[in-house]
Amino acid sequence: YKRQHNDFGKEGEREAVDFLIKEGHTILECNFRYGHAEIDIISQKGDILHIVEVKTRSSTAYGEPESFVDQRKIDLLVKSANYYVRRKDLDVEVQFDIISIVKNSVEYNINYIEDAFYPF
Fold first, then answer.
1. Which of 28, 78, 95, 120 has a CA-to-CA distance to 44 between 20 and 30 Å?
2. How much is the pTM?
3. Residues 100 and 118: beta-carbon distance below 8 Å
4. What Cα–Cα distance (Å) separates residue 118 from each residue in 14, 51, 103, 106?
């Protein structure tokens, strides 16, 4: 029985939302789309706006989930985040985070990487 890839990812995003709420974040948006980009989660904690990319994998055989965030993806996230901040007229510091989830029948591991990359 193989789960649909998309369902698996959505499940991971739901778990990431629960995790962030427990960490004291307020969830502002899920799956925010701008052009060809999508931000999985936008949350706020204090005066920091968190742009969160969620990566869910069933194994680390091909590397840690966070290693799948490439420069093109980073550029799209930065562009989308800038648009979101302008559109909402927010006065916040923006931080880019990754939540990587590895989940299979044996293990369940959630790794929250704050300030995962900087928008250069």
1. 120
2. 0.89
3. no
4. 25, 11, 27, 34
